[in-house]
Amino acid sequence: MPQALNPAVDSATAPLIITQLLDKLGLSYQAHSEKAGIPAAQRLQAIMLEDSIGAMLLLFRHDQLLDLNRLEELTGRKLTVLKPERLARMLSPHNLNTLPGLPPLTNSPCTYDESILQEPSVWVESGKPGVLLELSSADFKTLLTKASCARFAEPLERIRINLDRPNDDPAEINQAVKAFTARRIQQRLEETIEIPPLSATARKITKLRTEPDATIDDITGVVETDPALAAQVVSWAASPYYAAPGKIRSVEDAIVRVLGFELVINLALGLALGKTLGLPKDHPQQATPYWQQAIYTAAVIEGLTRAIPREQRPEPGLTYLGGLLHNFGYLLLAHVFPPHFSLICRHIEANPHVPHSYIEQHFLGISREQISAWLMRYWDMPEELANALRFQHDSDYRGEHAQYANLINVAVGLLRNRGIGHGPDREVPQELFDRLGLSRDKANQAVDKVLEAEATLRELALQFQPIH
Predict the structure, then answer these.
(1) Same domain, 172 and 320
(2) Domain residue limits at 35
(3) What are the residues facing 112 on neighbouring strands?
(4) One Pfam family from the UniProt entry (predicted)?
(5) Is the pTM of this model over 0.70?
């Protein structure tokens, strides 16, 4: 009877239905607790797609991106990712929480990328979160006798994402727009991309930010001319998250007693800019809603900034603004490339193991971070903000205003590991904490505080969701 290989090495156990299946087929395996360091070329990604004909199981490697366009060319089918609730209904009768990469377990046809058997062993999801199964490639091949082989995945190493080449941004954005519009490219990028003008409120706040003698009365006056913005600022201050004593009765009250001048001017600017571009109707399944993620990230960064020693601390209001607008490029991609934004959403769903930068680079030629940083400069926003958005995913960034980008990197990474946001979990490098003067414990405490107030912050985020 087949047994797990070296069972004493790891105490992880696979679900009963999985062990019974492998035992019945006479296959040897090892159950492992998920950990860093598993070669991406050996780890398989399983995804269930469907169309009007039915469902299909896809298997490919973690160092690859599933290209739905290429799959459509091969199969003649326009497949999209199975809705989470439908996948849950398929898995729950077997007490499985994740989709195992074992074709005999499903009644659906299976297609696998031809490269998955190139390594000596493969690691697949067991159906139990945090537990992977290791099988020899020879044994795994016996599970693919009824599956079809194809070449539909793109190696990530061929996708040259631009994390740290800002000088290439204008040319790459221009090229992307040229590729996706029939319009003749103008000499100046700002004449090519149809960006709505800043609102009057945003223009006033931007001007106020640069005035050294600006007072609380000045910002109060600007905010109060926009009733919706005024209501949001008061709601923010009155939120249980800030636990302000007594009732908040006015914008001035919110500034003086709770939020402070710097936070309010940057909060107001972030809200005004965020509303310049509407939320797209399409979005990836299971993605954290835009404003919810923005507010969680800003709140975590607020806590992280306070935890940095005072002599090293960057400007708190600007770090908060960076958190609030960190994903602004998502709105911008939907605005600039509307016919192709849905394609990006479908590929984000089909590639949960891949950061969005690879997907956007592969299909558009640019990332949301590049185009959002360009727009911040075009709108004359602070250079700290432009750099924060541009370099937020480069954990090695040490250039000008690095603290602002590094703080977003830490906040997004810590939230992602708690299930907020989209994309693969990732370990935040200790070197990044050290560079910011932060301890990992204090950073996790800042996240804990935000998640303890999750219901309160979600309520604030609902103010920005479109009403259908």
Answers:
(1) yes
(2) 7-157
(3) 59, 149
(4) tRNA_edit
(5) yes
